[in-house]
Amino acid sequence: MASSTHPNAPCAACKFLRRKCIQGCVFSPYFPPEDPTKFANVHKIFGASNVSKLLNEIAPHQREDAVNSLAYEAEARLKDPVYGCVGAISVLQRQVLRLQKELDATNADLIRFSSDQNTLMMPQSSGNSLQNPHMLPPNYGAYSWNYNP
Amino acid sequence: MASSTHPNAPCAACKFLRRKCIQGCVFSPYFPPEDPTKFANVHKIFGASNVSKLLNEIAPHQREDAVNSLAYEAEARLKDPVYGCVGAISVLQRQVLRLQKELDATNADLIRFSSDQNTLMMPQSSGNSLQNPHMLPPNYGAYSWNYNP
Predict the structure, then answer these.
(1) What is the residue extent of each domain of chain B?
(2) How far is the C-alpha of B35 from the C-alpha of B18, rounded, in Å?
């Protein structure tokens, strides 16, 4: 199937694979000829055959998201052959743990502050100063990834 | 190269590919025969040939990490064919943004609290109650990922 932006051009996948881009080509809607790198990356990391199989197993309305996530993973693996996008997961996990720790500490400060104020200012206390509307339930670890390079 | 735990058994990759596991097999140290799923997953998503190429381009001391990250990505893609482990990145990004927002709000509460206390309790003020040792610099966005399924 020819791309809508280049009606006579084969898609980037068919051009790369040097084959005819037929009507109903599974790659064509997601690999336009003007972005040859997207297919080259995905092909290098996953292989055209694996991508084709994957796309055929996914509902058409989800294929664009699937191709974009494959392209993201492929680019990450080319930039970092050892960790790929798992490196990003590890960094984000550490960031979540650090932020949760900071939040716990800040909430503890707020409770202590509030408690001190209640002790010192008993007559003025509103009675709800221990309530922190921004306090979170202990939810870190909700996304716990085993791999931690 | 035969695995140390099963000296006569071929590695999981050679067993899967039905080939002889020779001395110096690039897969053998990372795909022991007792874990056939690890290779099956990686082969299904990346292809044995791509994995072999990747391993040969990486320094030996980094190959175990590379295989483990590939196995992690492969398992994630098999569980979620549309987003794979990019889905985890998206969830973690949202978690980081939410935590940073909560932390900013809690820090603002603490500053307001401290300011109120200073106003009410001027004679008792220690003079440093505006200092929050847990306040963070505005660092979210340090890991900003473009893909957000």
Answers:
(1) 1-79, 81-117
(2) 16
